[in-house]
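Need a sequence for this fold. Nothing fancy.
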């Protein structure tokens, strides 16, 4: 049995944090599915590398330019084909798992991160255009994104909530999901092909490695190197502890009685940024029920080769609490750091998105000039 299937037996699904046209059409994604990959995530940086950084899309770009399509139209045509193709390959996983897995995620325009209404409109447009039950729309957990999550879940749209770094932000995301479910249970779906309360799905993407990158710098400045490399895991374990509390009790039981599903915690940013850390650190230490780990290609390969399969997520909770408390004693404001990481994360997704659109615009301009 592959390690990915062993993880599945422990309640954790592996999603692949990568997409490219060749992945879908070459049979590579199908091969990964057979090994135990249960979903695919994308983001603007991944699409920028795929579209601008490869020749996979050149023929389609030329065809779309000749059809006088705008830059926005070209981007969406390319992205939609990849997302649709991956979703179709994963449809069997979706059906066999009764809608637990088999999802492909597509991000709303990162420039809408601070606009609630436009985020809602864009997410609904993407969901209705793709018309696949196993597509998730990614919405950032910004102040504007939180009410959008409630509205989208209430309308029957699957949501991958992204860019969560801190515990308070995670709690707000889970609350937004519950509120959305309660509205959906009352009124039913309001979008084309929207899901009912017993079918709509969501994950809360909690980012891991970037927390260590930020906190480690603070610890080094304070001469506390022995504490480095522990904050991201501790922070994540405390978030999962919150998950177990939120999705229990009378409020949740009322919803689960109507068939509602928990909003699984998804570990994102799981590749180690520090070469001194084990390359499977953020997989090995975060294994537990009702979770997803989305791994980029290098991390997936490393885990299959030498990762350790064991339920680790609920181990060392007291140690995790002591570590977070120690940071506060040292004057390190973890809440402030995680808030800034989210701000930086929105910017980090906007930059490759803009670079991709610029690349398409330049190709369009060059071809139109050559044709004239």
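Here you go.
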């Amino acid at each position: 049995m592959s390690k990915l299937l062993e993880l599945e037996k422990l309640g954790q699904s592996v999603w692949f944090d990568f997409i490219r046209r060749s992945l879908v059409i070459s049979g590579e994604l199908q091969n990964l599915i057979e090994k135990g990959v249960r979903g695919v995530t994308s983001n603007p940086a991944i699409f920028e590398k795929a579209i601008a950084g490869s020749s996979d899309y050149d023929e389609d770009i030329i065809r779309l330019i000749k059809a006088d399509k705008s830059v926005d139209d070209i981007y969406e045509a390319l992205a939609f084909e990849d997302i649709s193709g991956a979703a179709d390959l994963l449809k069997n996983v979706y059906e066999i798992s009764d809608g637990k897995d088999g999802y492909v995620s597509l991000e709303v325009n990162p420039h809408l991160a601070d606009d609630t209404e436009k985020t809602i409109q864009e997410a609904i447009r993407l969901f209705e255009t793709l018309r696949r039950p196993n597509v998730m729309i990614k919405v950032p957990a910004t102040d504007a994104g939180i009410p959008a999550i409630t509205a989208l879940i209430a309308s029957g749209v699957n949501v991958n909530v992204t860019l969560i770094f801190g515990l308070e932000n995670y709690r707000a995301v889970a609350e937004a999901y519950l509120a959305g479910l309660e509205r959906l249970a009352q009124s039913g779906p309001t979008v084309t092909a929207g899901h009912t309360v017993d079918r709509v799905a969501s994950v809360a993407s909690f980012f891991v490695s970037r927390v260590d990158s930020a906190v480690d710098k603070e610890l080094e400045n304070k001469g506390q190197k022995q504490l480095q490399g522990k904050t991201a895991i501790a922070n994540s374990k405390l978030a999962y502890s919150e998950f177990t509390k939120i999705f229990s009790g009378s409020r949740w039981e009322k919803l689960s009685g109507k068939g509602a599903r928990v909003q699984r915690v998804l570990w994102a940013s799981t590749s180690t940024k520090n070469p001194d850390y084990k390359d499977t650190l953020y997989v090995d230490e975060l294994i537990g029920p009702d979770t997803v780990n989305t791994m980029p290609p290098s991390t997936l390969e490393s885990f299959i080769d030498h990762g350790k399969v064991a339920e680790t997520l609920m181990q060392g909770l007291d140690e995790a609490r002591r570590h977070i408390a120690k940071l506060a004693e040292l004057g390190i404001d973890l809440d402030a750091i995680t808030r800034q990481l989210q701000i930086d994360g929105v910017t980090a997704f906007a930059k490759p998105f803009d670079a991709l659109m610029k690349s398409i615009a330049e190709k369009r301009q060059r071809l139109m000039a050559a044709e004239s």
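For context: The chain is about 55% helix and 10% strand.
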